[in-house]
Amino acid sequence: MPRRRSRGPCPCPCSGAPPSAVAPFPFQRAVEPPPSAPCHGGRPPPDGARGARQAEGKSRPMRASSPRGFRVHHGHAGIRGSHADLAVIASDVPAAVGAVFTRSRFAAPSVLLSRDAVADGIARGVVVLSGNANAGTGPRGYEDAAEVRHLVAGIVDCDERDVLIASTGPVGERYPMSRVRAHLRAVRGPLPGADFDGAAAAVLGTAGARPTIRRARCGDATLIGVAKGPGTGPAEQDDRSTLAFFCTDAQVSPVVLDDIFRRVADRAFHGLGFGADASTGDTAAVLANGLAGRVDLVAFEQVLGALALDLVRDVVRDSGCGGALVTVRVTGAHDTEQAGRVGRAVVDAPSLRAAVHGPAPDWAPVAAVAGGHGDEGPGRSPGRITIRVGGREVFPAPRDRARPDAVTAYPHGGEVTVHIDLGVPGRAPGAFTVHGCDLLAGYPRLGAGRAV
């Protein structure tokens, strides 16, 4: 097995610091952000071109819609139920990696091990297990997760600390290691192809939820993302983790990739309002192996950001709540942090459901929620809050005008956009968008009928 590269210094030759690490709710980074340093703007490490040529020479044909140099395994390891429940995504060559993790202090062993894996900005792949979070399982649970990672490293032919691991499912149970161990020992590398759709269906589309997968192009590079939201359907009340994984063959240095992914996570995953309390295993990561060559970094960030936002909207739509997508756009705030805090409070507020479902909708309680979470603080004067739904003002507005057609049709599905302007006096650039689910009245009955 190849020797592990030195941990600590970034592989980028112009920076001796590890990738950045801090991001707000519900994810956080693995390590503290480094001091700013110039970087080579996406050029690979000195041996990157040689590694790329070697990988291209031994790669098997793969789907054109998948990034070059990535291989996938998915199958049934007997973790829970009869559906496929384990997936491995691996790069033929060392890839730059950026990741964010749960901020919960009750983090699962998978999160602890993955934080270690991304500390030097280089990884080879990720293994995801569905149906068991392996959280709250003590030292034995940690040993189980470490063994799974070790077995996957043997398949990929890399150091075990180059493999991320993620888990989703019930808390308080250990992996059924005899079955998982037998499954992984039967897998031989190199993996046969790049069936990302199968991986998404196997792991990220757990019982009751459709797999979520998106693809995009940036120049000659391909980006692909798979995600699973905090399941809310009848079969997933104990499955709260948000998982998202992106793979690309673009050339982006580890430091630059981590900075880009941090900004993308801030705009996308921190805008996941419904069911987005920090869970034990929340994990989002991106791997870039560089086999497609350089890309325009500004365009790359835009494409990756749009891909992540699409995935967020998809997982909310597919969350199993039986309702529609709610998009709350907050503007006119003091800063982005305030706008995000208000948006998350509103999208989770019962008063929002009452306003859109009630026979006599009243948007004043929604305005009260927005004002109550504004946290004006010393020297911050309150603004004049206005609320629009479907482009029509509903607060302040006479009650007989407060139910536009868009809201009338809202319970039947689709999407409704609520725009809240906090009206902070002066220059108020703070803005943020949060996506959530409307939680229709029938949702408690869905949960009550869940088979445990």
UniProtKB/TrEMBL annotation:
Q: Which InterPro entries match?
A: Arg_biosynth_ArgJ, ArgJ-like_dom_sf, ArgJ_beta_C
Question: Which residues are catalytic?
Answer: S241
Q: Known EC number(s)? A: 2.3.1.35, 2.3.1.1
Binding-site positions, substrate: K228, S241
Q: Where is the composition biased (Pro residues)?
A: 32-47
Keywords for this protein: Acyltransferase, Amino-acid biosynthesis, Arginine biosynthesis, Autocatalytic cleavage, Cytoplasm, Multifunctional enzyme, Plasmid, Transferase
CDD domains tied to this protein? OAT
Superkingdom in the source lineage: Bacteria
Show the HAMAP family listed in the entry. ArgJ
The GO molecular function terms of this record are:
L-glutamate N-acetyltransferase activity; L-glutamate N-acetyltransferase activity, acting on acetyl-L-ornithine as donor
Per the UniProt record, the site (Involved in the stabilization of negative charge on the oxyanion by the formation of the oxyanion hole) maps to: T168, G169
Q: What is this protein called?
A: Arginine biosynthesis bifunctional protein ArgJ
Could you give a single Gene Ontology term from the biological process aspect? ornithine biosynthetic process
- Its predominant location is cytoplasm
In which compartments does the protein localize? Answer: Cytoplasm
From what organism does this protein derive? Streptomyces clavuligerus
What does the record give as the function of this protein? Catalyzes two activities which are involved in the cyclic version of arginine biosynthesis: the synthesis of N-acetylglutamate from glutamate and acetyl-CoA as the acetyl donor, and of ornithine by transacetylation between N(2)-acetylornithine and glutamate.
Region Disordered: list its residue ranges. Answer: 23-70
Gene Ontology cellular component annotations, sorted alphabetically? cytoplasm
Chain segments annotated as coiled-coil in the UniProt record: none
**Signal peptide range:** none
Pathway connected to this protein: Amino-acid biosynthesis; L-arginine biosynthesis; L-ornithine and N-acetyl-L-glutamate from L-glutamate and N(2)-acetyl-L-ornithine (cyclic): step 1/1; Amino-acid biosynthesis; L-arginine biosynthesis; N(2)-acetyl-L-ornithine from L-glutamate: step 1/4
